[in-house]
Design a protein that fits this description.
Radius of gyration: 24 Å
Number of domains: 1
Helix content: over 70%
Number of strands: 2
Order of helices and strands: HHHEEHHHHHH
Amino acid sequence: MDILASTITGFMADYLLPFMRISGLFAAMVGISARTVSTPIRTLLTVMLTLMIVPVVPPVPVDDFVNLGTFLLVIKELIIGIAIGFISMMVLDTFVLAGQVIAMQTGLGFASIVDPMNGVSVPAVGQFYLILATLLFWTLDGHLVMIQMIVMSFKAFPAGESWWTALQFKEIAHWAGWMFVAAVTIALAPIVSLLIVNLAFGVMTKASPQLNIFSLGFSIAQIMGLVVVYVTLTNQTFHFTQHWQRGQELMCKLLVLC
């Protein structure tokens, strides 16, 4: 009976801890973590991926499965998966933030819709940038990169053995700070264009004070904002590729791969 119990305990540990790490990834990963993806589908994907990768990852060194230490190991695995998936989410949130900056500058912030991923209202321009970035994420096989990273994490940090240091969590916090810098970089061209438009309005106000520049300029600013967004769409692929490359470098650094 002791041998049977030990075998069952080892079997449960070998599958439960990887399952929790992959669950954390899918709970925070782009696309799969959206509210439009039902919980049964997400659970099925987690189970399928767990069954595929458990044979190729190191076994879990857990002797006694039912204790407080195992519960802490489950929490650790869940946090590792969430942290890896959260990096991909921050890459896309950069474009949402850039869209919000553009919307506020052009007066398009009044048009807001519900974000299906987070369940909150965001400007329509930000949602448009989010949809565009999500399509680029799937087109560039970002989901395959995330699965590859979670598999590599089991080699860098075997389940039930290793744990991240404070410096690695600090890298994620610094990445969140750079997200704002990248968002301003993406929105720099529309911001400068609208600044020139506002300067032109100032010259018009000085030359002809009787014109109602506020009502006239508001409509023109919105039209120019749409025009600038259309013109700068060709640069979004470049921005996403560069930012996603930095995100992969961060994940490699966290997994001690580079």
